[in-house]
């Protein structure tokens, strides 16, 4: 057995605030992210805007998925029966280790030491590549972005475009340095033109496609009624993997089902427009079992639980299982746009990751590690994610529920400063004279006003409770005069005096402080 | 029960021996063993209780107080384009948005139009699926290579291009659907050559995705094609041409 180098994992990534702090300091990363998220945001808005029935499609999409979840045992057994009847083999995996063992077992049975892979969130989630590596089997990622991540010994940072944190010049360097070790080297004098980079990937992967005996994919949808499995892609690497090798193994989360063939009409409209911002993605492949003389001779479908049944048990959180992995929520998220995906410490980053990862790791059932416990707080609760979601997942509602779960059990990050501030506020509101005193103190806080009239990080010694509050966010500057004193001075606004005598805020000047 | 192999140990000492799969949790639904004797076999060392346990977990998750309510799916979204839509015109426009070349032709001009496109793409050796529906392309001067008997991977890889018909096309999304019909052939035929000429008859064009789904047979292997192979993986800018045919030409026959 030749040793296969394992890939990096998210193990050991610090809690979100710490990881985000590092990411935020990387101006280069922020420029890459901003450009990419804004490009795709505009494209999505344009193709969604031309659909007069978009809201109806969204509601239908959400309802179909809710129906799937409500009757999952029945639909799973129906899928197993229809796939089997069409000549496929169905396997069930309770967790990552089981799913990996099944895939490794099939690959070994066919005597191969390599597999070609279609980009798949499920196989990333279970760490399949490293399980294959441990068995001496190389897993070649064939999606361009996955190839960039794999050759760069990097971690993914986006659901659709795992290498979104890299710009063209960085990609050129990764190809030039890494392709030779994995197979056909990059051509001499490779430029950073996207077309040249795509051509280099085409040349590099071609020999792998043509010789591969076993392919591994995920699946976007599987139709219980017919046993049809669907993979949506752009580059044609998916078609290569689905038609050239003799053996195809598809790892599918159990929530990916659709009841009927007709349901595809909803999701093949929702997914491409939400995901890549196209009316339709370049290639969609659908197959039912095996077809004589066309494509693989053997098809294995691995149905993966790995925490999904726990998510299903939560009445609020279960809607996260509607997710079709389009990544629209990442692209509109003000937090994701600034921190990027790696700060979330999970293969599912961004808003959907912040609600799905903690649930898959058992936040609804038991104690979780500090990194996981930090994820429900990786959001401003602005709600842009829900608005963009093609299946209307109420991400803010799940986030607040998880925060409540953590706070109730005293498991969340303890904001001592925040708790002290809340206590102080309760005291201040108890008696009118106390509030007056607090407002005077607030006016004093203007000495810490930073740019844009906000109070940034306040020196701990001076500010007491406010220090905890402002460690992770800005507080708006208090006005120079409280409402109470203004009311007193002007007799409720009847004798409005010269503002200058009340100490004008002179905001323009404050910008310079 | 765990399936994680012990480090260094071979967890599949006998992985080439098919075992008879006996599932004591059989639910009475059609089962693999009954329909296909000998299939599937389980992999030695793997627990067979996974299915039973997952189903038990699911039933537990769906019972009790938080049980989901019954859902009705409202399908009042559009099924068709409005009356009077020029479907062929819309289809051509949307395909061209993907940077694919579209030429419209009639029975008198189709050979010349096809010849123009093939010349422009410098295609001489053109693979065609078995079935003789595209035999007329020989009149363009191209050398037709029939995929019958099936060509090898290397032969397909070495061809300049491929020509196919289609099962149907969707105007609103500029999509061509292949389903392995006689003028479309195996999926790999329209994948390996770098150039794809697709012949679409105007009466094959439907308006919307729901109309297409209603007409298609899910048991046939399908490939939906919307423009040439492309990627948005570099700075999320779309680049045409990765692994599939980098050039897509559509000949639209009135």
UniProtKB/TrEMBL annotation, chain A:
Residues 470-513 are annotated as: Disordered. Transmembrane segments: none annotated. Residues 313-343 form the 4Fe-4S ferredoxin-type domain. Pfam families: Fer4_8 (PF13183), LUD_dom (PF02589), LutB_C (PF11870). It comes from the Bacteria. Keywords: 4Fe-4S, Electron transport, Iron, Iron-sulfur, Metal-binding, Repeat, Transport. One of its GO terms (biological process) is lactate metabolic process. GO terms for molecular function: 4 iron, 4 sulfur cluster binding; metal ion binding. InterPro entries: 4Fe4S_Fe-S-bd, 4Fe4S_Fe_S_CS, FTHF_cligase-like_sf, Helical_ferredxn, LUD_dom, LutB/LldF, LutB_C, NagB/RpiA_transferase-like. NCBIfam families: LutB/LldF family L-lactate oxidation iron-sulfur protein. This is LutB/LldF family L-lactate oxidation iron-sulfur protein. It comes from Yinghuangia soli. The lineage of its organism: Bacteria, Bacillati, Actinomycetota, Actinomycetes, Kitasatosporales.
């Amino acid at each position: 057995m030749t040793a296969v180098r394992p890939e990096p994992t998210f193990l050991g990534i610090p809690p979100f605030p710490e990881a985000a702090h590092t990411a935020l300091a990387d101006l280069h990363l922020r420029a890459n992210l901003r450009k990419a998220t804004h490009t795709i945001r505009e494209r999505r808005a344009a193709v969604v805007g031309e659909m007069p029935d978009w809201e109806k499609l969204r509601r239908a999409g959400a309802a179909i998925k809710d129906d799937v979840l409500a009757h999952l045992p029945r639909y799973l057994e129906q899928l197993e029966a229809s796939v089997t009847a069409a000549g496929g083999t169905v396997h069930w995996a309770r967790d990552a280790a089981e799913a990996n063992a099944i895939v490794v077992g099939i690959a070994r049975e066919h005597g191969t030491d390599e597999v070609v892979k279609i980009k798949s969130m499920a196989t990333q989630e279970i760490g399949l590549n490293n399980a294959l590596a441990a068995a001496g089997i190389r897993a070649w990622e064939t999606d361009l972005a996955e190839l960039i991540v794999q050759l760069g010994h990097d971690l993914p940072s986006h659901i659709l475009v795992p290498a979104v944190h890299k710009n063209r010049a960085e990609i050129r360097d990764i190809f030039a340095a890494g392709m030779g070790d994995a197979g056909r080297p990059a051509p001499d004098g490779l430029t950073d033109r996207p077309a040249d980079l795509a051509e280099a990937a085409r040349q590099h992967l071609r020999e792998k496609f043509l010789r591969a005996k076993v392919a591994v994919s995920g699946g976007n949808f599987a139709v219980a009624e017919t046993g049809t499995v669907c993979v949506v892609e752009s580059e044609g690497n998916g078609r290569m993997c689905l038609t050239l090798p003799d053996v195809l193994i598809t790892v599918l989360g159990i929530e990916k089902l659709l009841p009927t063939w007709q349901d595809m009409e909803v999701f093949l409209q929702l997914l491409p427009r939400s995901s890549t911002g196209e009316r339709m993605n370049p290639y969609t492949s659908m197959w039912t079992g095996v077809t004589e003389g066309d494509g693989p001779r053997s098809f294995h479908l691995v149905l993966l639980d790995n925490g999904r049944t726990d998510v299903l048990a939560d009445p609020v959180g279960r809607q996260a299982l509607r997710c079709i992995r389009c990544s629209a929520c990442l692209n509109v998220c003000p937090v994701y746009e600034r921190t990027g995906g790696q700060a979330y410490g999970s293969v599912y980053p961004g808003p959907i990751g912040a609600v799905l990862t903690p649930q898959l790791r058992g936040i609804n059932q038991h104690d979780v590690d500090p990194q996981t416990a930090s994820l429900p707080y990786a959001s401003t609760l602005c709600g842009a994610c829900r608005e963009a979601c093609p299946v209307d997942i109420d991400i803010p509602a799940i986030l607040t529920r998880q925060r409540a779960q953590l706070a109730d059990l005293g498991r969340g990050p303890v904001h001592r400063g925040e708790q002290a501030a809340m206590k102080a506020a309760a005291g201040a509101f108890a008696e009118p004279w106390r509030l007056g005193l607090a407002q005077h103190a607030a006016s004093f806080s203007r000495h810490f006003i930073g740019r844009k009239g906000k109070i940034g990080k306040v020196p701990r010694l001076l500010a007491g409770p406010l220090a905890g509050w402002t460690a992770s966010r800005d507080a708006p500057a208090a006005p120079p005069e409280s409402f109470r004193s203004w009311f007193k001075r002007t007799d409720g606004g009847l004798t409005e005096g010269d503002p200058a005598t009340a100490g004008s805020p002179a905001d323009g000047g404050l910008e310079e402080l | 029960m765990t399936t994680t192999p012990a480090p260094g140990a071979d967890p599949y000492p006998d992985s080439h021996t098919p075992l008879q799969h006996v599932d004591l949790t059989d639910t009475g639904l059609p089962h693999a063993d009954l329909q296909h004797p000998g299939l599937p076999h389980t992999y030695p060392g793997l627990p067979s209780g996974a299915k039973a346990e997952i189903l038990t977990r699911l039933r537990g998750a769906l019972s009790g107080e938080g049980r989901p309510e019954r859902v009705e799916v409202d399908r009042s979204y559009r099924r068709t384009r409005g009356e009077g839509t020029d479907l062929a015109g819309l289809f051509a426009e949307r395909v061209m948005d993907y940077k694919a070349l579209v030429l419209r032709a009639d029975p008198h001009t189709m050979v010349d139009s096809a010849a123009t496109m093939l010349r422009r793409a410098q295609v001489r050796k053109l693979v065609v699926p078995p079935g003789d529906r595209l035999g007329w392309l020989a009149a363009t001067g191209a050398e037709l290579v029939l995929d019958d008997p099936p060509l090898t991977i290397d032969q397909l890889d070495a061809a300049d291009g491929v020509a196919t018909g289609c099962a149907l096309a969707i105007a609103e999304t500029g999509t061509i659907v292949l389903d392995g019909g006689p003028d479309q052939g195996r999926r790999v035929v329209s994948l390996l050559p770098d150039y794809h000429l697709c012949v679409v008859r105007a009466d094959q064009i439907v308006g919307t995705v729901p109309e297409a789904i209603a007409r298609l047979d899910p048991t046939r292997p399908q490939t939906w094609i919307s423009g040439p192979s492309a990627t948005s993986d570099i700075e999320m800018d779309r680049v045409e041409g990765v692994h599939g045919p980098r050039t897509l030409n559509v000949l639209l026959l009135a």
